[in-house]
Amino acid sequence: MSSVELDRGPVVGEPRPVHGGHPSAAGCGGCVDCCHLPEISVTDEETLELQTLAESVVGLEAAPMFTADPVHEGWQIMRGPCVFRKSDSPIAAGGCRIYEDRPGACRIFTCKLLLELRAASR
User: Total domain count for the chain?
Assistant: First the structure.
């Protein structure tokens, strides 16, 4: 039997933690939750750009890993979590190291659906 007290956290109605920032229904608040997706679709051209960026970005924990998308020609799948996210401590100090050069999938991503799902589950 666990001696952990369940008087804090989502179990008792507190908000679920995010990786940092404060997302809202209006959009991204820098929480980097999207950076933790298991797969990120990028074009072949973006793959080359990301590989070049990885060589110049200081502090990366690993190189990005790509596999050809077996269904969509001209696309690659970058394995997440994204290596370009900052994993500084505290977590709220995180963010994207290549924000200005981020791939198209990151530019159009919105977590509005995720936020609606979270609200519906309460």
Answer: 1
Q: What is the pTM for the complete model shown?
A: 0.67
Local confidence pLDDT in tens for the 122 residues of the chain: 344 445 555 556 665 545 445 555 555 666 676 788 889 999 999 999 999 999 999 888 899 999 999 999 999 999 988 999 887 655 555 678 888 898 988 887 767 666 676 677 77
**Nearest-5° Cα angle at 90, 107 to 119:** 55
Of the CA atoms within 13 Å of residue 23, those in its CB half-sphere come to 24
Residue 115 lies in a domain: yes
Domain that residue 58 falls in = 26-120
